[in-house]
Amino acid sequence: MTAYKGLLTGLVLSLITSFGFAAESDPLVGKWKTIDDRTGYSRADVEIKKKPDGTYEGIIVETRNIPGTEKMGICSNCPGHLKGKPFIGLPFIWGFKEDKANPLLYIDGKVLDPIGGRVYRGKARLNASGKRLTLRGYIGVSVIGRSVTWVKY
């Protein structure tokens, strides 16, 4: 019986370690500092998680104001059920899937502009080191859009 318990304990620890390693090795998962493309300031920190359906979602975990402006706390311009919600905990990106042909590209996502309140189609590309993410929000075709860079920490 003792040998069986030892084997079972070893198996459980092995599974836990395997799942922990798999989550850590996913380069998109983690905390990212957003960089505003117009001002160069970091406006927020976003935590990206992989959902059980294989898609990625990012929520705002911290916000900062641009010097000389007031810090915003509520998404007053957001659409639907997101209107009036606090920025902290707000889903900011969702539905992104890894492109099977290119593991550094994530496609078919949605991007919320919490200041303007619009939801855009989105795609994202990791650089080779996995430390920079270029996120593009667009309407219709990706040529008509805006890109921002995030830095992983």
UniProtKB/TrEMBL annotation:
Q: Where is the signal peptide?
A: 1-22
Q: Which domain of life is it from?
A: Bacteria
Q: What's the protein here called?
A: DUF2147 domain-containing protein
Q: PANTHER family from the xrefs?
A: BLL5882 PROTEIN, BLR1215 PROTEIN
Tell me the keywords, alphabetical order. Answer: Signal
Q: Which organism is it from?
A: Acinetobacter tianfuensis
Domain called DUF2147: residue spans: 30-151
